[in-house]
Amino acid sequence: WDLIWFGFGSVIGAGIFVLTGQEAHDHAGPAIVLSYVASGVSAMLSVFCYTEFAVEIPVAGGSFAYLRIELGDFAAFITAGNILLESVVGTAAVARAWTSYFTALLNRPHESLRIHTNLTSGYNLLDPIAVAVLAIAATIAMISTRKTSYFNWIASAINTVVIIFVLIAGFAHAKTSNLKPFMPYGAKGVFQAAAIVYFAYGGFDNIATMAEETKNPARDIPIGLLGSMSIITVIYCLMALSLVMMQKYTEIDRGAAYSLAFQSVGMKWAKYLVALGALKGMTTVLLVGALGQARYTTHIARAHMMPPWLA
């Protein structure tokens, strides 16, 4: 159960709240549901690969450990660099998005919580809140894996309540007429959107790095990975469907799709709940990300590809 909730915490973040509206509007229309099915199936294929490796090689290194055994040190070294880069860049992006949603929750102007400097445009907005959130997430992860798991359970439970609310309220205001035409951009649009919404499924590899913390990794990791991904795929498809049935795809806002869709059906207060759900989701993504990053670093240092004392 801990692993299933870790999967929940590391995958369900801002992706579903941001990408759904953008892709339904630009590429897929109401067929965004099929895009989530397609990318869910392809994410599940990756999960099967991770599962097989996690059973054979139950160590903390995740994909780094698997590649090192299968393809040798050179491939593993490049992978290690990629994993660390992805962790740093990915968590930085999520932390900045955290500030954006927090600003929306406080009903303040768009960039008001960032420090404006005279650096080059695009690099001139410093984000102290993002730094603080990252530091807090890393500190919680350092205190203990068990306590992190409890915190993740609570946050994911709150997130689940928000998602259930979005589904119930969305389907209560649904109109089947909004589903026509179902595939305005054809199959090409569906797969174009699927390639983008795949990002909403990212993060499941963090579960595979927990192999050394589980009592029976050969049984627990597959259940954790497959269990969480199955539930997440169903949730994503239902959330996408509720959005395109609530509002015509041409009218969906690309930036804050759910908030403005609720506003359009007269539920202005719902935007605060959506922002809160997205914040909760991003917090757990950062938390489980910090855990996974530490596990990867441990194993890379054990392999002496960085100073061994880092292990």
UniProtKB/TrEMBL annotation:
It holds the Pfam family AA_permease_2. One of its GO terms (molecular function) is L-glutamate transmembrane transporter activity. It is found in: Membrane. The keyword Glycoprotein does not apply. One of its GO terms (cellular component) is plasma membrane. Keywords: Amino-acid transport, Membrane, Transmembrane, Transmembrane helix, Transport. Its main location: membrane. It comes from the Eukaryota. Coiled coil: none annotated. The chain crosses the membrane at residues 6-21, 33-54, 74-104, 150-170, 182-201, 221-244. It is a multi-pass membrane protein. Belongs to the amino acid-polyamine-organocation (APC) superfamily. Cationic amino acid transporter (CAT) (TC 2.A.3.3) family. This is Putative cationic amino acid transporter 5. The lineage of its organism: Eukaryota, Viridiplantae, Streptophyta, Embryophyta, Tracheophyta. The gene is CAT5.1.
